[in-house]
Amino acid sequence: MKECDYIIVGAGSAGCAVAGRLSESGKYRVLLLEAGPSDRNFWVRMPIGYGRTFYDSRVNWMYETEPVAGFAGRTSYWPRGKVLGGSSSINAMVYSRGQASDFDEWEALGNEGWGWAQVLQTYRKLEDHDLGSSEWHGSGGPLHVTTIDDEAHALSRLFIKAAEETGLAFNPDLNGGTIEGVGFYQITTRKGFRESAATAYLRRPPRNLEILTNAQATRIIFAGLKATGISYQRGGATHEARARREIILCAGSVGSPHLLLMSGVGPAEVLRRHGIAVVSDRAAVGRNLQDHLCYDFTYRTHAPSLNNVLRSWHGKLRAGLQYVMTRRGPLSLSLNQAGGYYRSQSWLKAPDIQLYFSPLTYEKAPPKTRPLMSPDPFPGFYTSISPCKPKSTGHLEIASPDWHVHPAIHPNYLSEPEDLATMVRAARFLRKLGEAPSLAAVIDGELKPGKSVTTDMDLAEDIRNRAYSVFHPVGTCRMGPDASSSAVDPRLRVHGLMGLRVIDASIFPTITSGNTNAPAIMVGEKGASFVLEAQK
């Protein structure tokens, strides 16, 4: 049996940050358990390789939700990282921190120390930003953030011009004083390679940090109400590890609540239904599930796009040679090159819609086919919208007492009428954007939803049939001071238990505006500081 000071379950976006910070002093012995393999994988390290890992079960949990009424009965595919670095090793790498009002809202809900003033300092601590040290950014931190203004595709520049023609302002730094406006996204890469949380925090792991890959945690071991260890599967055998100080769950918004539930921590009626002994009746575990949706307009163009570059074998060869020789070119970037944030109604106090622009199109295949995503055989691009603060919430719960069985995920998308109305307004803006002079000049046709989809009712129906998760699930171990409505307190300790914390995106009390990877890493940084402060 292994013994250490801290056991961390999950080497994802937050878990790597926690492991790196807890072990860097050399004072504590830390064990990091990761269910997936090492990240030493070409498709993980090459930025655009997420086109393959998107459907690769070796590094991806490949969750699928239960049928969703708001999606016309469709299920939703949820890729989540099962590899060192977690979802930061398979995501689209967009670095978006959220806006000040997101975190001031967290603090207003009773989470002292989580307001924007404090969170910004945590972001500055973790960043090694291309823009250097400033009021808004950090330099010399573990995570490198790259600006792509000089590398983005020419169509991305036309998108920005078209957005300006609709009245939106150009924003040279979408992580600066405001996120409002349009510009080029910043991405998590370093010298042409993906910068995951693993490459950022675990590049040179100290001797007091033991990392076990392919180690699936199956149960938290309790002595009364104190968490003392973890039971895990590795190499076909069951093992146990004991922690002298704390168990820290960083398994993500699906994995962390699932492990709690499998261990007897959660709504008592759910646990008893599956024959699991109740350790602590915690009603909030698995509840408060929030996620961002995305909806695309697809255009065919007569101007070249990345389809022209990456569709043919000789185009792929040229791009591959450019990447190997220089670590530059389209393979070194994300497909989400430009975008921004705007207010769908003038009276709103903050932006409520995120925009994406991709200078490439491809047919989205069902997840069980596991293809390498391949561009369409014609030039084209996507414009997309994603509401920042959806009102609909869902839940997840265990489907079986067998740890092999994925939990039942009920995202409850579009159950609040306001969410669908917001998406319809945003869809109308996408059409306006496509009609702006700079984009209209290169468009041959609107392929989806198509010009026949005109009324609000038509757009709503198309949204129900084509909208999809943008893979930002949060909130299932909600943070808050009230044990009846939250799973962890503002120091991320599980209510009612000792020696157990959750530090990952599952603790978000409300979803942040934009991509959630940067906030998840920030939670890891901030959570690690809480753990260390408890030892002083």
Brief rundown of the structure:
With 536 residues, the chain is α/β, with parallel strands linked by helices. The chain is built from 15 helices and 24 strands.
Description of the structure:
With about 525 residues, this protein is of the alpha/beta class. The chain has two domains: about 1-140 and about 195-265 and about 475-495 and about 520-535, FAD/NAD(P)-binding domain, CATH 3.50.50; about 150-185 and about 295-390 and about 415-465, 2-Layer Sandwich (Cholesterol Oxidase, domain 2). The chain is built from 15 helices and 24 strands. It has helices spanning about 15-25, 40-45, 50-55, 100-110, 115-125, 155-165, 195-200, 250-260, 270-275, 305-310, 315-325, 415-435, 435-440, 455-465, 515-535; strands at about 1-10, 30-35, 65, 75-80, 125-130, 145, 180-185, 190, 195, 210, 215-225, 225-235, 235-250, 265, 280, 295-300, 340, 355-360, 380-385, 395, 410, 445-450, 470, 500. Helix 1 runs parallel beside helix 15, helix 5 packs across helix 15 (about 515-535) and helix 12 crosses helix 14. The model has no long low-confidence stretch (mean pLDDT about 95).
